[in-house]
Design a protein that fits this description.
Structural class: mainly beta
Oligomer: single chain
Helix content: under 10%
Number of strands: 11
């Protein structure tokens, strides 16, 4: 079964940092544009960041710009989201998506999704 798996979610204090990862099962990540999304309780899923298949192009949502960094290591078949200066408003389940439609894609219509990993920012 082709799918993604997120990992690394945890409880973090405000101002802290956390890196979460996204790995595929059954396909090579290098041909896919990757997006990170999050969904807080009672809210709609929102885009956080996206990266092209070669890692050279990135885009960030305004709430995380300057605090989060999306990256990928195609040799390790893994994408990452480094989150710094975390705030309570960053608390959510974080999902990754993979899109084969183009080398660069930053929408919501991804081919594969993961189950999500919980990130909680609280003192």
């Amino acid at each position: 079964q082709l799918q993604l798996k997120e990992s690394g979610g945890n409880l973090v204090h405000p101002g802290g940092s956390l890196m979460i990862s996204c790995t595929p099962s059954g396909f090579p990540l290098e041909y896919y544009a990757i997006g990170w999304f999050r969904q807080a309780p009672g809210k709609e899923r929102e885009g956080v960041a996206c990266i092209s298949s070669d890692g050279l192009t990135t885009h960030y949502a305004d709430p995380v710009k300057g605090r989060f960094t999306i990256s990928r290591d195609n040799a390790r078949n893994t994408a990452y989201l480094q989150m710094d200066s975390l705030k309570s408003g960053d608390t959510a389940v974080y999902f990754c998506g993979a899109a084969a439609k183009a080398d660069w894609y930053c929408g919501f219509d991804y081919d594969y999704w993961g189950q999500g990993t919980q990130v909680t920012v609280s003192s």
